[in-house]
Amino acid sequence: MKRFLIRLLVCTCVWAGHRAGAETVLAPNPLRAFGDHIADVVEQVLPSVVVIRTEAIRYHLGRDFFFGQLYRIPERTEGQGSGVIISRDGHVLTSNHVVDRARQIEVVLDDGRVFPGELVGGDPHTDLAVVRIVTDDPSPTFLPIEFGNSDKVRVGEVVIAIGSPYNLHGTVTMGIVSQKGRVIGMLPYEDFIQTQAPINPGNSGGPLVDADGRMVGINAAIHRGGARAAGNIGIGFAVPANLAMRVARSVMDTGTIEHPWIGVLMQIVDDGVGVEEVFRDSPAESAGIQRGDVITHVNGRPITSPLEVRRAVFQHTEDAAVQVSVNRNGERKDLYVELETMPDFDLLHR
Questions:
Q1: 138-164 pLDDT, tens digit each
Q2: What is the pTM of this model?
Q3: Which of 238, 254, 270 is the last residue of a domain?
Q4: Catalytic residue at 60?
Q5: Whether residue 274 has pLDDT greater than 50
Q6: How far apart are CA 147 and CA 93, in angstroms?
Q7: Residues 205, 207, 208, 214, Cα dihedral to 10°
Q8: Which residue among 237, 254, 271 closes a domain?
Q9: Is residue 344 annotated as a catalytic residue, yes or no?
Q10: Annotated catalytic residue, options 97, 164, 210, 282
């Protein structure tokens, strides 16, 4: 009996020691910590994200059955997208296609309040627009989102998309930055952030934020993966926040934005950027740039892609001049191009 009690005491001490040791070395749950942080970020950002409802009159063609005459039939349409508050006085950044030709705009806040919206201005070249919340409050204090530096966004870092796809207000999705500087042929000026965070119809105009809740992009488009694909396939595109805020500030100051351009179609070649076409009466034509030239430098900086040419040009005002160095039949030529305002989107396809 005495020997049994001694063994029982030893076993109890060992078990207690293991239990005490387990309690002292128990590590925090990293998944729980990560989830709590993401939830905190969403809670911080949601009050700055809005729903934008629109009403527009669009026309489709009809034909008179007896006389064959064409006429336009008006049709009332309703739309919805997302937006993000960027100033305390109620300016909202969104996608231009969300509010394009809208006769009536409503802005719905995260807390359910509904305000009339007024279009300040839009930019079809970058598919961005600014709407102002109309309120009787002489000193409104809406909660603007915090801005991030999209130039410093890294491929692979975690990002969060917030918006209202399919009328589901305040939807939150998460993914990573898949790539930067994407050109997909949708707009005259493109520099998209590609993201794996699921984006669907209705997300347009909502923010893409980093792990600290800072806006790094405006969700703009998705790749559907062909006619048989349904919904999002993990390939979404957002306008970088630095570009979006530059456009927004110009729209807020002047009601519009004018983009500089040189007037060429470009393609990547082995030793630079090939000039595929020179638009008639364009700055490039006036400067002497020719089809078949290879652009190697802009203002002395080496160029390897059409996107780098557009970025270099877009950093200047419409009345500035840039030096464009081209390789023509093995000979370098330094040409000075006096920039002009980019014409309407439709003119680029004539």
A1: 888 899 999 999 999 999 999 999 998
A2: 0.76
A3: 254
A4: no
A5: yes
A6: 12
A7: 150
A8: 254
A9: no
A10: 97
